[in-house]
Amino acid sequence: VNVKKEHRSGYHFQPTKHWINDPNGPMYYNGVYHLFYQYNPKGAVWGNIVWAHSVSKDLINWKKVEHAIFPSKPFDKYGCWSGSATVLPGNKPVILYTGIVDDKNTQVQNYAVPANLSDPYLREWIKPDNNPLIVADKAINGTYFRDPTTAWLGKDGHWRISIGGKKNNRGISYLYKSRDFMHWVKAKHPLHATAGTGNWECPDFFPVSATNGLDTSVVGPNVKHVMKVSLDATRFEYYTLGSYDVGKDRYIPDPDMIDGWNGLRYDYGNFYASKSFFDPSKNRRILWGWANESDSTDNDIKKGWAGVQLIPRTIVLDPNGKQLLQWPVEELETLRGNKVELSNKILNKGENVEIKGITAAQADVDVTFSFESLDKAEPFDPSWDRYDAQKICSQKGSTVEGGLGPFGLLTLASQNLEEYTPVFFRVFKDQDKHLVLMCSDASRSSIKDDKTKMKDGKDAYRPSFAGFVNVDLTEKKLSLRSLIDNSVVESFGAGGKTCITSRVYPALALFGNAHLYAFNNGTEAVKIDSLNAWTMNRPREMNH
Ligand code: DQQ
Question: Is residue 38 in contact with ligand 1, taking CB distance under 6 Å?
Answer without folding.
Answer: yes
